[in-house]
Amino acid sequence: MLRCPNCNTHDLGKVGSNQFYCWGCFIELTLENGKVASIYQVEEDGTLSSLNDLFLDSSQDSLSM
Question: Do residues 25 and 34 make contact, with C-beta atoms less than 8 angstroms apart?
Fold first, then answer.
């Protein structure tokens, strides 16, 4: 089961075919081939700020389903 890479909870909701939203820390994840491809923080005004530079590096394999 997929866990949030930020807060490590299973409290994720599906918002698109490959997009999930964490209700614990308000980030949005996009999956490609079962792995996290991008991570965004949802701001108060609804815009998205990329968190890829914080989470997606050589540790990307540990974020897979």
Answer: no
